[in-house]
Amino acid sequence: MEITWLGHSCFRVKGKEATLLADPYDESIGYSLGKPRANIVTSSHPHPGHGFTSGVGGEPRIVRGPGEYEISGVFITGIGTFHDAEEGRERGKNTIYLIEMEDMTLCHLGDLGHPLSTEQVAEIASVEVLLVPVGGFSTIDATTATEIVRLLQPRIVIPMHFQTEALRFQLAPVDRFLREMGIKAGLSAQPRLSITKAGLSEETQVVVLDYRS
């Protein structure tokens, strides 16, 4: 499995049989998406920064919202949550996606705006690769993100939805999350992450990706 961060909450996940694109964005937010091709597109919610499915090339199957899906050998479970801590009254609904691909389980939390319930933790407890928002303001912040990581204990954590030079609105930088996770300054961002089931560490590792790759 190869994971590439395209900026904000958008990732390209490539397997042997399929390519999935999560949360494609309208370039008005500051990043340049281009026209990536994919077999599958997931959208956590319909805001321009997360649901710009027309920006994806090819003829992908679009997944929006809770439910169970099987597409091109990829199994996807959408879990209903909220974009805020007021049960959606401020920013609406959000969908978490649990993605089974290449014998591994990846979880994209979308724009989660609240701590996970006991039931939600149980639903996604099998996660091995966690994509978690850390920038606060419109999602969970670094502290809540760290609490979720400690509850789920994934093998790999990839932060997303944080401030960068490209982003045109304010979020907290990724450094706050790294400090909460006990990581000293100097962790270098890498262009992409290639992983196999056999190569996963027993301990949780934080990997920061670079959208400019």
Which helices and strands appear, and what pairs or packs with what?
Blueprint: E1 2-7, E2 10-14, E3 19-22, E4 40-43, E5 61-64, E6 67-71, E7 74-82, E8 93-101, E9 104-108, H1 118-123, E10 129-133, H2 142-152, E11 156-160, H3 174-180, E12 193-194, E13 205-206
Parallel strand pairs: 3-4, 4-5, 9-10, 10-11, 11-13
Antiparallel strand pairs: 1-2, 1-12, 2-3, 6-7, 7-8, 8-9
What would you say this structure looks like, in words?
- The chain is about 10% helix and about 30% strand.
- With about 210 residues, the protein is mainly β.
- It has one domain (about 1-205): 4-Layer Sandwich (Metallo-beta-lactamase, Chain A).
- The strands form 2 sheets. A 7-stranded mixed β-sheet has the order 6-7-8-9-10-11-13. It has a 6-stranded mixed β-sheet with strand order 5-4-3-2-1-12, with no helix packed on it.
- Strand 9, helix 1 and strand 10 (about 130-135) form a beta-alpha-beta unit.
- Helix 2 crosses helix 3.
- About 40% of the residues are buried.
- The mean pLDDT is about 95.
